[in-house]
Write a structure and sequence with these properties.
single chain, alpha+beta, QueA-like, 9-stranded mixed beta sheet, 6-stranded antiparallel β-barrel
């Protein structure tokens, strides 16, 4: 299967630069088992859920991972993007401009409160840096950092919290699990009141989620890895849902990747665990756990588009994307959503 099989044209006017006025007032495209499409609003989601179903949310929290500072020796402006925490003080970062930032250079972000020394330049050009700070790390980072919005969002955001889910708990992501941005506390309560279980896991979204597929043969693409954590109580709830013939509906491709990583293919039961996953799901993959998927509209030729194509069929997904353009849906992180239900419940 080729990368070009997942190409589609998308004029810039379809790329959402701001979220909907209210989270649950985005559009919701529902893809049903008979391959029909229904155009709804996200607040209509409970109409398509059944008592005994289980929604699985990713409770990661986006770090204010973009930092602007100056080199201590020259005053030159420098931007850091935090990629991966190594220990309490050391991080892997992307540095812009990078050519003149060498080991030993000190970058000052908040004078007297936050600075970093460049330790090592990696083969991929990223730097290992050591932060020195006065106070609690999370508080200092919140004061100095900015939300790292995707590169296709170019508008200034009035409310940075709209790039966090309302159930975000654990710091660690370089990007939001955007399918979850549509939920409000009231909508979640309405879903629970219908007899639907809510389960949570954690997957910290890495900057690699924006890395394009360069290989024409997609099977040669090297997938990035991301940290996940799913506890025993959540695993028990998911297995119990399956035992009771309920559906597991993943909120986002991130939740889907964790569920599929931890499910035993011979028993189709999930176990608890934490670690890193580099699972790459594309057409031909046999899903072991999920029965439904809530997701946004993804970039052409992206691994995320390949995942949803594996779940519902490439031609069906591309047809749905054309329907979205014909009906003025908004695409990507701040855009609208789809609920994919590929099979009838037994």
């Amino acid at each position: 299967m080729k990368k070009s099989d997942f190409k589609y044209e998308l004029p810039e006017k379809y790329i959402a630069q701001h979220p909907a006025e209210r989270r649950d007032q985005s559009k919701l495209m529902v893809l049903l088992p008979d391959r029909t499409i229904r155009d709804k609003m996200f607040f209509n989601l409970p109409d398509f859920l059944l008592p005994g179903d289980c929604l699985v949310l990713n409770n990661t929290k986006v770090l204010p991972a973009r930092l602007h500072g100056q080199r201590k020796d020259s005053g030159a402006l420098v931007e850091f993007l935090l990629i991966k925490q190594i220990d309490d003080t050391d991080w892997e970062v992307i540095v812009k401009p990078g050519k003149k930032c060498k080991p030993g250079h000190i970058i000052v972000f908040l004078p007297g409160k936050l600075e970093a020394e460049i330790l090592v330049i990696k083969d991929n050009g990223n730097r290992i840096v050591r932060f020195r700070y006065d106070g609690l790390w999370q508080e200092v980072l919140a004061q100095a950092g900015e939300m790292p919005l995707p590169p296709y969002i170019t508008s200034i955001q009035d409310d940075p919290s709209r790039y966090q889910t309302v159930y975000a708990k654990y710091d660690g992501s370089a990007a939001a699990p955007t399918a979850g941005l549509h939920f409000t506390p009231e909508l979640l309560q309405k879903i629970k009141s219908k007899g639907v279980e809510i389960a949570e896991l954690t997957l910290h979204v890495g900057i690699g989620t924006f890395r394009p597929v360069k290989e024409d043969d997609i099977t040669k693409h090297l997938m990035h890895n991301e940290y996940y954590n799913l506890d025993e109580q959540t695993a028990d709830l998911i297995n119990q849902t399956k035992d009771n013939e309920g559906r597991i509906i993943a909120v986002g491709t991130t939740s889907c990747r964790v569920l599929e990583t931890l499910t035993n293919p011979s028993t189709n039961r999930i176990c608890s665990g934490k670690g890193k996953t580099d699972i790459f799901i594309y057409p031909g993959y046999r899903f072991k756990m999920i029965d439904g998927l809530i997701t946004n509209f993804h970039l052409p030729e992206s691994t995320l588009l390949m995942l949803v194509s594996a779940f519902y069929g490439r031609e069906n997904i591309l047809h749905a994307y054309q329907h979205a353009k014909d009906n003025d849906y908004r695409f990507f992180s701040f855009g609208d959503a789809m609920l994919i239900l590929p099979e009838e419940r037994n």
